[in-house]
Amino acid sequence: MRKIIVLNHKSYLKNEQAKSYPININNFIRNDQTIIICPSSIYIPYFKGKYNFKLGSQTIESDNITGELTGEILKSLEVKYTLIGTNDRKNKYEETPKQINKKVKEAIKYNIRPIITIGETFYEKELNKTLDVLTKELKEYLKDIEVKQDIIINYSPNWSYQGKQIPKEDYIYEAVDFIKTFIKRKYNANIKVIYGGNVTKDSILKLDKIKNIDGFLIDKPSTNLKEIIEILNTIE
Length: 236
What we know:
This protein has 236 residues and is α/β, with parallel strands linked by helices. It has a single domain (3-234), classed as Alpha-Beta Barrel (TIM Barrel), CATH 3.20.20.70. The chain is built from ten helices and eight strands. The protein has helices at 15-26, 71-76, 87-92, 97-109, 122-126, 130-141, 158-163, 169-187, 204-207, 225-234, and strands at residues 3-8, 33-38, 54-57, 81-84, 113-118, 152-155, 192-196, 215-218. It has an eight-stranded parallel barrel with strand order 1-2-3-4-5-6-7-8. α6 (130-141) packs parallel to α8. The chain is globular.
């Protein structure tokens, strides 16, 4: 199975590091993996070109707001994917389901493939509400959208992101299986579901054994070339 690996740089790289990153990583990308790199927005032009990876953005906006990037701008920059609803934006900027839904629609409007994060909090997990939360978020984020195979769901438990913890394999397997089954029954679409949440060189061996995961979202470790190359080579 061809794995999807999303490298979310956030704001970790300085200018010179970002400028050399595409060239340095390009020859280490395997033919059996789809690598999507989401650099900081100001560095997107550095990542345009004939590389072995796909270009993504860290967010998208439907309105002309200072500092944000609309679907029209991203399309002009040849961006093919965008992250939507990441845990840090929901936690820090309090992005609402309505806002996330608008971003998904904006991406689809400009033929940009959305990578949508869903996941429960620690409190919801302790109340055994995980599947209820996933159902609610999927319905809200995909409201009035014709779901097709080009939508990617990133399952990233909020409690794992905040606490630097990794859920047990069977816990992740059940959540991913539920997401795929829900989408298939409700929208008759076979979508890809990746896992994001403390994916590192130490956790990847354990995570890669979960057979129904279609790939991974990796943030800070993706900015360390030595570490990310090790991770990419470990993934089967």
